[in-house]
From TrEMBL:
Entry GO MF terms: flavin adenine dinucleotide binding; oxidoreductase activity
Cofactor or coenzyme needed: FAD
Pfam families named among the record's database cross-references: FAD-oxidase_C
Protein name per its UniProtKB record: FAD-binding oxidoreductase/transferase type 4 C-terminal domain-containing protein
Amino acid sequence: TIYDCGSGASPSSPRPLRKDNTGYDLTSLFIGSEGTLGFITDVAISCYRAPKSRISMMLSCRQYNTVLEIMATAKGILCEVLAAFELMDGTVVRVLRDREHMNFPPILSSFDEEDRFVLLVETHGADATHDREKVDNFLEACMHIKDGDKGDVGVLGALAQNDMQAAHFWALRERCNPAAASLGHVYKYDLSLAAGQFDELVGDVRGLLKERGVDAIVMSWGHVGDGNVHLNVVTPGEKDRNESIVNILEPYVYDIVVEKYAGSISAEHGVGQCKHLYLAGMKDKQDMLERMAAVKGVFDPRWILNRGKVHICKGE
């Protein structure tokens, strides 16, 4: 149930329906409003059964173009059972291994001499035999992908043999954030852009920081299958936010994502209080912002809910 501060009523009540097309989807509108339109008092939750078949695997390669080819292969062969396609770049992998002492599958440890991208791929399905056949075909196809100009070792892969190994694969991926924070202060950016642009964006930011003489480590990871990259800039040994570095990174990162890559400055973490001022200055968003303000005026006419988030309120 959603409480509407404008009318004092609840415009919708939770019902266990998968489909209801009898009007505007107010529930989705409120969920995406970050608390600026009302607040939720009751929820109806649909719980899905755990998949009967779950297969996890890790792959590594030298070049980002190979990452894209592996992803295309996964979509083509794994199809409907493909559930996750996660990326960790070589910089964060090296931090995980050398500083956090996290163990990668032995076959992936042969990248000691160079940074390699590491992928975590997972399938969910209802038939273990059917899914394993798909996975075997996928892995075989990956072994034939040419990874750069070197003719020795190309794409490397490891398949989790049990639930414990699968959990360890995911622990590696989930450890990226703490690993970055262990080095120093982290400037985080949750961005959405075409998967083919991830590595180029990282290169742009590294080039900017080098040009400005900033001692920083740029690393990335994310949900490459969804076009969502988590760009992280770490200042080694620093524990506090440095406004001079913020002024170098912003609005540069936001500008380049929007203008060069036609992406979004917020993929999944929302606008909140860190991005709303930049959002207000985007010329191509003015019409959308006016419509959003009009919607807020209906549900929150006094503009009292979650002030300073998403919208710019009077007096800011």
